[in-house]
Design brief:
2 copies of one chain form a homodimer.
Chain A (H helix, E strand, L loop, with lengths): L2 H13 L2 E2 H10 L2 H4 L4 H13 L3 E5 L11 E5 L1 H16 L5 H10 L5 H26 L12 H26 L36
Antiparallel strand pairs in A: 1-3, 2-3
Helix pairs in contact in A: 1-4, 1-5, 1-6, 2-4, 5-6, 7-8
Chain A binds a DNA duplex through α2 and α4.
Pfam family, one (chains A, B): PadR
Protein name (chains A, B): PadR family transcriptional regulator
DNA sequence: CCCTCGCTAGTCAAGTTTGACTACTCACCC
DNA sequence: GGGTGAGTAGTCAAACTTGACTAGCGAGGG
């Protein structure tokens, strides 16, 4: 699962009605250009694709008010909202170890009711446990792990990663169950979009050491 | 950086001379179909691309001896070996959090001299530290982390992940410095390819719970 | 007044990835 | 003696991603 559809659907949904550049700007505001493959080309492509599939509705709009080419505004459809929630649930549940998907999922987690978020995360820990078990079972040859040589280190990495993620997931579950944050249906939501007149403090284009490429 | 070029170059190199299906089979033997995007199409595409770029040399070969379409055999060129080592070094050094690249890099790490492997991994830990520092610095607003709301959990995830990886990397460094495994120039290397007449114990096509998709 | 710079908004070609599909042979069963 | 199932080897179109490019407007300097 690629993160871009989730990100774009989520961005359009939060905005209510947005054109490509706004989505692009929101994603940059969230730092998504650093931890996901949300490049301009991908964003515009995703918007068109989602519109073609009926998940977004495209309004043809007159030339921009502030210079630049004419722009298309998008709104999420009912079908799109469904797909958005489906993607979000899947991203939270499944252990697929891609940073961008996980980050996006956390960013949107408060769009779900608190109880469901917790349930999905618990499901996630179960998935991690299963994966861990299947790795240790499946890849240890009968004649002892020494047969694997340095290849055993790959297994070791997986186990290590799985454990770290299980621990982190459990911590998040605890915090959410402890009452942290504001979830769907609990009053004024946290809003993470830029208004039209607001400058983007993170849109510096500056890179940090170790950024994913 | 995508893992596929590294995997394909490494596979061809270990084989000496290999056709696409052999590479595909080796990768499956290594479990790469489960933790990387090494699907048939990608493998054949990579082979052609690498050949076009002079990193592999393509031998046109007569129709297969055992049925199936005619096959092309590939050998790695000097340039290809250089690129292979460059990719391997980069994969070991840079903290780019993609499982497939990391796993591939560990699989091939013994192609480097022991001292260099350690040096690269130490460089990696430095990179992780820097990334960690830049995350904590850059994303904590002046008015306290509470302003971030649940978005702070994304940062938390990154920190957690970075710490886990630093710990794992340090463990690996310790084991290598402690004399584990057999590196380049230290005698009979560990061989991870299938001979032509050998069956592949992992080519069952069976999936495990939690597999990355 | 003109020229460049930066911002807005988006397009495009080239490259990559995906998943389904083809075509051929051999072994085996009935 | 024919069918069929498994294995061998690879192709292909469609989708996606990437990075570079375009084109219009306003601000500011000289």
């Amino acid at each position: 699962m690629s993160a871009i559809r989730l990100l774009v659907l989520g961005a359009v949904r939060q905005h209510g009605r947005a054109h490509g550049y706004q989505v692009r700007n929101d994603l940059e505001y969230w730092g998504a250009h650093e931890w996901s493959n949300a490049k301009p080309g991908s964003i515009y492509h995703a918007l068109k694709q989602l519109a073609k599939q009926g998940l977004l509705h495209a309004h043809e709009v007159a030339p921009s008010t502030v210079g630049g080419p004419p722009r298309t505004e998008y709104e999420i459809t009912d079908q799109g909202t469904e797909e958005y929630l489906r993607l979000l649930r899947e991203a939270l549940t499944s252990y697929d170890q891609q940073m961008d998907v996980k980050s996006a999922a956390i960013g949107f987690i408060v769009d779900l009711p608190r109880a469901e978020a917790v349930a999905l995360l618990k499901e996630r820990t179960r998935g991690i446990d299963q994966w861990r078990a299947s790795v240790t079972e499946h890849y240890i040859p009968e004649d002892g792990p020494e047969q694997l040589g340095h290849i055993g280190e790959i297994m070791n990495l997986w186990i290590h990663t799985a454990d770290a993620e299980a621990a982190w997931t459990q911590g998040l579950i605890d915090r959410i169950e402890g009452g942290a944050y504001t979830f769907a249906g609990e009053g004024a939501p946290f809003v993470g979009v830029l208004r039209d007149d607001e400058e983007n403090p993170y849109a510096t284009g500056e890179r940090h050491p170790g950024d994913a490429r």
